[in-house]
Design a protein that fits this description.
The chain is mainly alpha-helical. The protein has one domain. The chain contains 10 helices and 2 strands; from the N terminus they run H-H-H-H-H-H-H-H-H-E-E-H. Strand 1 (214-215) and strand 2 form a beta hairpin. The chain is globular and about 75 Å long.
Length: 239
Amino acid sequence: MIKKAQEILTKNLKWIIVFICAISFLAILEDVFEQEKLFIDTFIYRIVVLSWRIEPLTTVFKFITQLGGTYVLIGISILSLIFLNNKKVAISIPINLGIVALLNWVLKYIIARPRPEGYRLIDESGYSFPSGHSMVSMAFYGLLIYLIWKNCSHEKLKYISCFFLSLLIPLIGLSRIYLGVHYASDVIGGFVISLVYLIVFTTITQSIFELKQYHKGKKESKPKEEVNKQEKQEKEANE
């Protein structure tokens, strides 16, 4: 019974994550619409803005935040189209970027939450919720993690790349709070709704783009046992 429950949980884990993230986003959104002062915003502001701000760290976070910016992400998308052997996989990267950017723009203009005032270290325009950098970075770098994990045959490179990208995503979100252009709830809201989107996107593209393991741009060959079984079945059918 316990084993069966574990199998069901494992099989439906991604949809459980989708449900939890969607509920979390709606809970934050309710408070934003009611213009309530969120505890998480005040708490994180006191830690990140009032306690952490020093010149060397400001320089670091200004650099990190650029990694979630338009030019960097478009540049990576173009490079993927040029250098990836599997063009169906390559094209999924800019398609993903375009969809999540549009989704963020729509959400921002529907919700229309003003940005924080009085402690910005950089200039930003537009609305605040959900954070565009956080939302787009989660979807964009999250897809790269997914593709690398599924397709990279070099174990060490796979683990190092996925670790680095997994660390980069929250750092980009943190940079937006540190630089004073977003509330903590903007960043958290961007992350959770983007994770919902990413799971749906990868589920769809898995069948459309056939995102399976590739080695040097070619599909991995079938196991020898499977090939022998298929040949035997074809031979019996012909007799």
